Known about the structure:
Number of strands: 12
Radius of gyration: 17 Å
Number of domains: 2
CATH architecture of the largest domain: 3-Layer(aba) Sandwich
Distance between the termini: 44 Å
Strand order of the largest sheet: 2-1-3-4-5
Order of helices and strands: EHEHEHEHEHEEEEHEHHEE
Amino acid sequence: MEKYRILIIEDNVDTRKFLEAMLGKEFEILTAENGVIGIDYARNKSPDLILLDIMLPILSGYDACSLLKKDEKTKRIPIIFLSAKNSVPDITQGLNAGADDYIPKPFDYKELVARIQARLRKNLESSVQPIQVGDLRIDPGNREVTFSGKKAQLTLTEFDILRCLAAKAGAVVSREEILKDVWRDESSKTNDRTIDVHIRALRRKIPSLTKHVISIYGVGYRYEK
């Protein structure tokens, strides 16, 4: 069976070699020591997922992530930040740059593998019928979202949260339900406030969602038809 291809963009030699040695048991590994080389590999070597450090030479991880998510050729590749920068503002900035997940260093190896596998499973989900709620249309097969006919550029996590809410339009979806649907095996290890960061990003990218994605205090969210 062909292995998934993981691109590791990390400037620290020891960390890069450790990740390559450990993950190489389960995945095909590509490595890059800076963001410029990493972007080139992402465009030309078609990785299935990218592990990205933030404090990189030449081009920061934030900037590299933003460029990758704006590029038609690489925007659908899941990106997980691995970084020693672990404050809430750091994590928020990483998710706002387009990352699909953020794991602070030092990390647990088993947790890292579980999160990688969860992201890869998301990308392999088979096509299902599009979801249409008013002006919102979600195409799970192509992972595309349009509102009033205008396409929105969302991260994989933003897409999954919006899909989760739209699929249950009119009903209140608890934070726990969203975590289990989007983060699956890692739901118990994910801070539910991460959902709020992604919701803010959704409202920023699709301003009309402000009146459709309603916060239910102390419970979760509802997509208002």
